[in-house]
Amino acid sequence: MGKFNNSINLLKNSVQFLYQQRGLHTARGMACSRFEYVKNYEQDDSILPNVWIVIRLDGKGFHTFCKAHNFAKPNDANALNLMNTAAVSVMEEFRDITLAYGQSDEYSFVFRKETNVFNRRAAKLLSYVTSLFTSAYVFNWSRWMSSKSLLYPPCFDGRIVLYPSDQNLRDYLSWRQADVHINNLYNTAFWNLVLESGLSNQEAEAELRGTFSADKNEMLFTKFGINYNNLPVMFRKGTVLLRKRVKTEGDGGLNRQLIVPHHDDMIREKFWKDHSELLGKYKPGDYVCAAEDIPPVLLSQIEKLNLDEDKGKVGENYS
Ligand code: GTP
Ligand code: MG
What is the pTM of this model? Predict the structure, then answer.
């Protein structure tokens, strides 16, 4: 027996020796190593307190991606709703996002000033939002783009921008919304010249060079009978996602907090009055609509909710 114990001790000592040689410690001798100092090289990237945190994502090389996947020109409603659906997934995960704004291949997410998610660590936040958005985009592809195969993996870059004042935040969102107006008016004129008038890309570019908004509006109306203001509002204004208590009429009275797409003008004062919860005390307002008018991005949340309820999975999941 004594001989056996000696052998065991010898074995234990050998293992201990090997661990020490490799700079490791046995479970009894602490779970750290002489390598652990490298952790100190990680930088503290905590975001300042009390600032609006905006994360903006933008599709990488989407000019080529949209062409490869034959998106409708200049706006593909399904592709835009796919972006909106991916953004809803991000908002479902991060409840401290009070507003998200999307247009073209970009989406901005606004976090509450007081958020403490991931202890406000910038890299964690940015990488999580970017990867979740991207995977949700791919995950939901077939739902919106049913007849088209996804030919290669899309990717999005991301950045964090901090805004100290409410006015800065409003100006940021106004800037992004003015951008969609300028680009969409140009693109609508451009693609009508190419697709309807048969101009080459270069000829259409030349035709539009030096024109003002009023000229493009006039051209759309006189040449193509298009009143720009009658085009779908999602194309002209982009999509603002807001948390609202959704009350539907005529389907048994839905009353749930969900993420609702709006296409309002954020540059106007009215938007901030209508959605006073954004800058004031945060309590989502109401959104009332008839059952037959529910926008598709909201409808898919309601369908998911019904499915989960059928499976007995959720109660009041979104409040
Ligand atoms: P980087 O962002 O710098 O990688 O370049 P990008 O090619 O993604 O261009 P950018 O982000 O500046 O612009 C987005 C591009 O996506 C637009 O120029 C369009 O070519 C394309 N795009 C976005 N939405 C639509 C759409 O609904 N239909 C079509 N046909 N194209 C779109
Ligand atoms: Mg892009």
Answer: 0.86
